[in-house]
Specification:
With about 375 residues, the chain is an alpha+beta fold. It folds into two domains: about 180 residues, FAD/NAD(P)-binding domain (3-Layer(bba) Sandwich), CATH 3.50.50.60; about 150 residues, D-Amino Acid Oxidase, subunit A, domain 2 (D-Amino Acid Oxidase, Chain A, domain 2). It is about 25% helix and about 30% strand. Helix 1 packs parallel to helix 5. It binds flavin-adenine dinucleotide. Flavin-adenine dinucleotide (FAD) binds next to helix 1, strand 13 and strand 18.
């Protein structure tokens, strides 16, 4: 009989890789990824933002608990900083000016610990930060300095390298297609052969419900939502130090990305799990929103893409052992914040799987909030 691993992780995105890393060699691990490369789906298509504001209290806490790791990763984890300062400019047109001031007051009052304060800006001050804003559209703005670009690929590879150095095996081109429980462990059928493990972790992102079905569990209503982005050239403008810009209700956002401007219409269309691609209408909306609030003329879209943001019905992550199927652990539903919360989410999952106390940065977070039991019927 082939080796029985302690844990098989389905999914080589940021969620599966962070768990493999934070298990720190305490369990024997094999990670199974259906694609040829890690991070091929959501993880490789994100807006790469880290911000402690504008989330539910639970997601805010997970992000805060991830900040130390992101800002000061362990020696040797990454060859460059994982976070780069970006800043975030929140803008509103005349109709939403009052609403923006209310959001500003709330953010000022509830500032996350140790973060610099937000600043209310008039149109001229906003245009000092983003000269191509249209003063005919923007009415008022506020600036949040606590917004960072994440080096997503470096973070993902740091997790993978660290996990492998602790003995974890990573198998790419290994799609999980079937599983049966035999003698207290799983016999897992994959496109790369059979794997045995005592526990299977379902970190399959948009595929979380169908993957759980392979293991005999009922779906939890974890649904992928498509989000689109386009990339446009902005000749004559140096974007290096420009902040990210968000419409106050996140109707759209744009930010510098590899010398161009990434623009998203912040769409959120429920879809079946698949290799997401952009729909023409969403691409057109992205270009329209940018043209509307700036003086830029968008004549050419250099590149467009889409990815899946996958949510449980209550929009909280799902982390914990199944109450229905022995040997199944859920690690899914990290929505639009899976990159920035990956240090905390990976550590919570690792502690639960090892029946260990929650380590320091996450000690104040009650993992029962994220238990699949809240969704199991
Ligand atoms: C446009 C966009 C912008 C975003 N912006 C941000 C942001 O600014 N900040 C942030 O923190 N987050 C952001 N996100 C969200 C973030 O990208 C996700 O939360 C995160 O990548 C989810 O990671 P994951 O590992 O759960 O999923 P994935 O990266 O999708 O990984 C799941 C993996 O499971 C594999 N898999 C599925 N089924 C099987 C199977 N049967 N066998 C083997 N393998 C399987 C898939 O191939 C996939 O690689 C954004 C997402 C999008 C789309």
């Amino acid at each position: 009989m082939s080796e029985v691993h302690d844990i098989a992780i389905i999914g080589g995105g940021i969620t599966g890789a962070s768990l493999a890393y934070f298990l720190q060699g305490r369990r024997s691990v094999v990670l199974l990824e259906q694609e040829t490369a890690l991070g091929f789906h959501s993880t490789g298509r994100s807006a790469a933002e880290f911000t402690r504001r504008f989330h539910s209290p639970e997601v805010g806490r997970l992000t805060q608990a991830s900040a130390d790791f992101m800002m000061t990763p362990p020696p040797g984890f990454a060859e460059i900083d994982l976070l780069r300062p970006r800043g975030n400019l929140l803008i509103a047109d005349a109709e939403k000016a009052g609403h923006l001031r209310t959001v500003y007051d709330t953010e000022r009052a509830n500032a996350p610990k140790d973060t610099p304060p937000v600043e209310l800006l008039n149109v001229e001050q906003a245009m000092e930060k983003v000269p191509f804003l249209d003063p005919g559209w923007v009415s008022v703005a506020f600036y949040d300095p606590d917004c960072w670009d994440v080096e997503v690929e470096i973070l993902l590879q740091g997790y993978a390298r660290g996990a492998k150095s602790q003995g974890a095996a990573f198998q790419q081109s290994a799609s999980v297609t079937g599983a049966v429980r035999e003698n207290g462990h799983w016999v897992i059928e994959t496109s790369a052969g059979e794997i045995r493990a005592k526990t299977v972790v379902n970190a399959s992102g948009g595929w979380a419900d169908p993957a759980a079905g392979i293991l005999g569990a009922a779906p939890l209503g974890i649904t992928p939502h498509r989000r689109t982005a386009i990339s446009v050239k902005v000749p004559g403008h140096d974007l290096t130090h420009m902040p990210e810009v968000n419409e106050i209700d996140e109707l759209f956002y744009f930010k510098p990305d590899a010398g161009q401007l990434m623009v998203s219409p912040a769409d959120e269309t429920p879809v079946d799990p698949h290799d997401a691609w952009p729909e023409e209408l969403d691409v057109a909306y992205a270009a329209h929103y940018l043209s509307e609030c700036t003086t830029l003329e968008v004549t050419h879209v250099a590149h467009s893409w889409a990815g899946l943001r996958t949510f449980a019905p209550d929009r909280l992550p799902v982390i914990g052992f199944s109450g229905q199927v022995e040997g199944l652990f859920w690690l899914a539903g990290v929505g639009g914040y899976g990159i920035q919360t990956s240090p905390a989410v990976g550590q919570i999952a690792a502690a639960l799987l090892c029946d260990a106390p929650m380590p320091d940065p996450i000690a104040g977070i009650d993992p029962r909030l994220f238990s699949p039991s809240r969704l199991e019927r």
